Amino acid sequence: MTDFTKTRAAFHLPEGMTYLDGNSLGPMPRAAADRVATMMQDEWSDMLITGWNRAGWYVQPRKVGDRIARLIGAGDGQVVMGDTLSIKVFQALSAALALRPDRRVILSDSGNFPSDLYVAEGIARALGATLRVVEPEAVEAAITPDLAVLMLTEVDYRTGRRHDMPALTARAHEAGALALWDLAHSAGAVDVNLLGADADFAVGCTYKYLNGGPGAPAFIWTHPRHAEAAQPILQGWMGHAAPFAFDQEYRPAAGIERMRVGTPPVIALTALEAALDIWDQVDMKALRARSIELTEAFIVGVEAECPDLVLNSPRDPARRGSQVGFRHPQGYAVMQALIAEGVVGDFRAPDVLRFGFAPLYNDLEDVERAVAVLARILRDGSWDRPEYHAKSAVT
Fold it and tell me: Please, is 228 exposed, middle or buried when counting C-beta atoms within 10 Å of its C-beta (0-12, 13-18, 19+)?
């Protein structure tokens, strides 16, 4: 049984703020600052270069990866940390294509995060492949015998729609293709089971629901059946079989270690470890049940109190992640007004107010306050002030 009152107390949440944007950036674990300070004072400061061995910095990407593996239905030794999510998408997609050399079609959907599509477009151009993008509802029908890789984000970043990972992966395999899943809005939000779904590759970030902090490193997972055959185009020093032999020619390390690229971000990984201490207390089935409770309550409340808003997320919770979107013609201004009132969500073009619900620190009181403030600013028109229409660089 997960004690969500206890996990909420483990985060620093500014007084008076209702934070519903953990699907963009999770709040800081209270222990993170001291954990990082200790690492800097006791390890970096005193150990200097010897910290790679004495403090375990070199093996940190695998050790942290093993802790994340439990949250995504993977096994020990199957996940490694490092670099950004786009780099991990590049590695996974290029490795998957290399495993299907007689095919050159990548399939994705229009709800995928644009950055993933940018990466796929670049790889397709470089390798003479084709990127097909269809509507989310048309994915299954678009899985044809010429497909090499199905590349999808499990939970849509705007709508919160959740793809059926086991069913679509099975359909891809029937067609002779591989399945690559982006878990950016899944890891720490829903009950992911990569091995159960028989996926081939998966990637994800740790600064959202996993609360690793801004710029926290990404992770990559390879199914064990591909671990010794995967050959990503991006081959880095840390992914070499013997990095400190300084060979001129690349030899891939065993298993998931070959998916390492550059020097690991030790300070960022240390902050993430503080967050994972909280996650060690969490049962993912309990988390999923709590997520559904919160999102259902929010939808009911908003539809009752805010008739001008239109639901932009699946109504069935089984088809939804841990976020809810509503549409409004002036969504940006409405969200800025909400933020000014201490209810923090975010905006996604063209007109979506997006709210992320993280059971580790959100509760029904957050839902009630968010609904009440949103209803009030829509009713009194206070959102329609000039300062709320002025767009910032980050929306």
Answer: exposed
The one catalytic residue among 332, 354, 355, 388? 354
CA distance linking residue 31 with residue 357, whole number of Å: 22
Is 384 among the catalytic positions? no
Nearest to 200 by CA among 228, 180, 176: 180
Residue 134 in this model has a pLDDT that exceeds 90: yes
Which of the residues 35, 208, 288, 348 is marked catalytic?
208
Q: Which of 29, 5, 61, 22 is nearest to 271 (CA)?
A: 29
Look at residue 187 and tell me whether its pLDDT is greater than 90.
Answer: yes
Among residues 157, 207, 219, 332, the one annotated as catalytic is: 207
Determine whether the annotation assigns residue 153 to a binding site. yes
157 is in an annotated binding site: no
All domains of the chain in start order, with CATH = 4-28+283-389 (3.90.1150.10), 32-279 (3.40.640.10)
Where are the extended beta strands (E) located within the chain?
A: 18-19, 79-81, 105-109, 130-134, 147-153, 178-182, 201-204, 219-222, 310-311, 323-327, 343-344, 346-348, 352-356
- Is residue 207 annotated as part of the catalytic site, yes or no? yes
- What is the strand order of the sheet 219-222 is part of? 79-81, 219-222, 201-204, 178-182, 147-153, 105-109, 130-134
Residue 12 annotated as part of some ligand binding site: no
116 is in an annotated binding site: yes
Q: How many CB atoms lie within 10 A of CB 244?
A: 8
354 is catalytic: yes
Q: What percent of the chain has pLDDT over 90?
A: 99
State yes or no: 24 annotated in a binding site.
Answer: no
How many whole angstroms separate alpha carbon 144 and alpha carbon 288? 33
Rounding to the nearest 10 degrees, give the CA dihedral for residues 33, 37, 40, 42.
Answer: -140
- Interval 66-85: pLDDT, tens: 999 999 999 999 999 999 99
